[in-house]
Amino acid sequence: MKDFLPILKSLKSNYGASLLFIFQVAITFTILVNAIYLALDKRESIARPSGLDEQNVLYIATNLPVEEASQASQLDQDLDNLRALPGVEYASVSSGVPLSGWGRFIEIATKPDSKYDTFSGYYGGDLNLLKALGAELIAGAEFSPSAELTVRTDGYRDAIDIMITKSLAQSLYSEQWEQVVGKTIYINNKPQRVVGVIDRLQAAWPTWVVVEHVVLAPVKEADSMVYYIIRTQPNQQSAVLEQALSYLTALHGRKIDKYETFEQVKANAYSAENAASNTLFGVIGGLLLVTALGIFGQSRYSIIKRTKLIGIRRAMGASKGQIVRYFVLENAVLCAIGIVIGIIAAIVLSNAFSSAFELGTVPPSYMFFGSLCTILLGQVAVLYPAFKASQLSPAIATRTV
């Protein structure tokens, strides 16, 4: 560490270039850490499991082209015929589709006539809806046949028994979430009994802060527009979809509003997040390249300015390794100062993002690994200029004195 004091003296005599280097590192670190956190946070949102059998679930949005009095019987007839198709495991009807933007949200409270405790998504369907989605029941029991109801719309007002997701149960009862089974909770101030807990299921809006809060009710809605959820056997989606559309369109007046596999639903739901994540990774790559070139250029320029000093040190017996070590250590000192400033700036920027956009703050681990990455980037960028400096001949260098 005998080079440390000469390095500090050298930096003091070249404070302009040193400050430029430090602020370049600080700005790079600040942007780098926050950009990586935002990009990975979006990737985590995209990759989080939906709770569905994603490879085998599809939905068809269509109408019930009969008189209002006959819509309930037409709904049941459609479901019976869809279940009879080859390759169909389960078929059900739902008031919405996870991550599609089509669904309802409701207010949840644990006490009557009180302010809501949280929000939740809501899906109403028949007794097969849970299995048609491919979701897993982890506590309690399935709905009894007597709990199933058929209404025209707003089934959440009529439900008696419900299932809720584990995430919602934890929000209401924290660590004792299993105790929610058998309890009565209040949906829009209406009492409903929780009979089961679903491991995971997502609401209709992928960017919603409580996207994993979902209530499932055995209430079919025989409205003018319905969503048929079909879970197929593996590798049978295309054939089942073709047969289902063929059956549904055979009825006069039937209109198919939309149909998608759940993989398509999820891809569309997260298309903006995926594009933003890719853009951020592109920005990160470009930033690292520009910073590396900047460090390289500044290091090269700084070394050229000190050709006399290098020549003198070489003439006094300094080895090539000592010359390389000097500039590598100098680079590390400058990067360390820049990183300290960058950490402060990154914390301030992260807190600003958190307040403005309801994002989480950057964890300390990102600061640690960001520091290592920045130090490594600086060391890689300075190696070639330092190596070229060590190759200077003492005789050639001292001729400029």
From TrEMBL:
Where in this chain does the record put each ABC3 transporter permease C-terminal domain? 283-394
Concerning InterPro entries, the annotation shows: ABC3_permease_C, MacB_PCD, Macrolide_Exporter_MacB
Where does it primarily localize? Answer: membrane
Instruction: Tell whether Isomerase is among the UniProt keywords.
Output: no
The GO cellular component terms are: plasma membrane
Any transmembrane segments, and where?
20-40, 280-303, 324-353, 365-387
Tell me what topology the record assigns in the membrane.
Multi-pass membrane protein
Compartment(s) where it occurs, according to its Swiss-Prot or TrEMBL record? Cell membrane
Q: Which family does it belong to?
A: Belongs to the ABC-4 integral membrane protein family.
Q: What protein does this entry describe? A: ABC3 transporter permease protein domain-containing protein
